Amino acid sequence: MQQHSDDAHHPLFLRTVTGTLPVSAVRGPALAHEHLVLDLDRAGDGGAVLHADPHGPAVTKELAELREEYGLGLVVELTCRGMGRGPHALARISEESGVPVVAATGWYYEPFHPAEVDGADVGELTAALVREIHDGFGDTGIRPGVLGEIGSHGDVPSGPETRVLLASAHAAVATGLSVATHAQLGHGGRAQLELLTGAGLPPHRVSVGHQDLLDAPAVHRELAASGAYVAFDTVGKESYQSDTTRLRLLLALVEAGHADRVLLSCDISRHAYLRSEGGQGYGHLFRSFLPRVRAAGVDEDLIDLMTRRNPLRFLTGADTKES
C-alpha cells in the first residue's frame, strides 16, 4: 500500500502510482499522454493492446532508456475505466524504470464505455469518480492523479459522452484534479471545453486531446486563447497525420504566442508501436520530432516549457508562465 498524504492536494505535489511526488523532483521532460498498460481490442486480433505480460518488460526498458538518455521525468498514463487499466502493473513499470507515472480515472469515448455508464446519471458517475480518486483503484491503495482520457467522437459529444464529460468536470472541481480529453481525430474539442467549463471547471484544468490530428490552426489558437491546454499528443503516428504537418501546426501555435498551452506526447496504444517490435516507441518525440522543432528555431527554454513546465502546470493547476 502506498502512503496517502494531504500533500496530494497541494499544488506542489503530484499523485503518482508510487505515492506523492514533489513537482520540484521532476527535472526532465514529461510525456503528457501515453499508455503503458492497455486493452482496446475490439477486433479480436490482439493488436490494440499493451499487456503487462508479455509487453510490460519492453515498456519498462524503453522508459528506463529514455530516463537515462533524455532525463525522462514523468509519464502521464491516460488508460481509464474500460480501457484495460492495470494499476499494479503501472506501479511495477514505474518502480523498475525509475520513471514516475501518473494514472487516470474516467471513461473513454462511447464505443468503449463499460456497462456502468449505461443508465447512470451525471451524479452517479461523478460519485464513482470521486470515490475512486479518494479511495484508489479497488484495494490497491493506488490513486489516480488525473481524469482522462475523457472521450467523445464527432463535433458534438453523444448523450453518454456528455454525461461522462460533465461528471468528469464535477469530479475534477471536487477533488482538485485536471481533465485530459480524447477528441476523436481532433474533432469536437471546442464542444468538450464548453461542457467542461460550463460545469465550473477552469479552462487551465483542461487539456484538449489529439489536436495534432486536426489541421485547423484557428481552432488551436481559440482553444489556447481560452486558457486550455492544446495536446499535440500523437507525435509519430504517421498513418493518422504526418509529423511534417504536426510540425507546421505546432510552429503556428508557438508563433501565435501560445507555447505556454502546448502539451506533447506520442500516445503509444498498440504493441506494434514499441521499439522492440520495430515501432517508433515512446522516445520518438525526443529522438525525431524535437530535433525538427529545434531546427525550426524553437529555443531550449520553449522546449522545456512545452515538455516539462506545461505538463506540471496542467496537472497541478498552477496557472502561471513559470513553474
Structure description:
The chain is an alpha/beta fold and 323 residues long. The protein has a single domain (6-316), classed as Metal-dependent hydrolases (TIM Barrel), CATH 3.20.20. It is built from 9 helices and 13 strands. It has helices at residues 52-70, 87-97, 122-135, 159-175, 189-198, 217-226, 243-255, 284-295, 300-316, and strands spanning 13-16, 19-22, 30-34, 38-39, 49-50, 74-77, 101-102, 104-105, 146-152, 179-183, 206-208, 229-232, 262-264. The strands form 4 sheets. A 6-stranded parallel beta sheet has the order 8-9-10-11-12-13. Strands 3-6-7 form a 3-stranded parallel beta sheet. It has a two-stranded antiparallel sheet with strand order 1-2. Helix 7 links the parallel strand 12 and strand 13 (262-264). Residues 1-10 have low confidence and may be disordered. A divalent metal cation 1 binds at residues 33, 35, 149, 267. Its cofactor is a divalent metal cation. Belongs to the metallo-dependent hydrolases superfamily. Phosphotriesterase family.
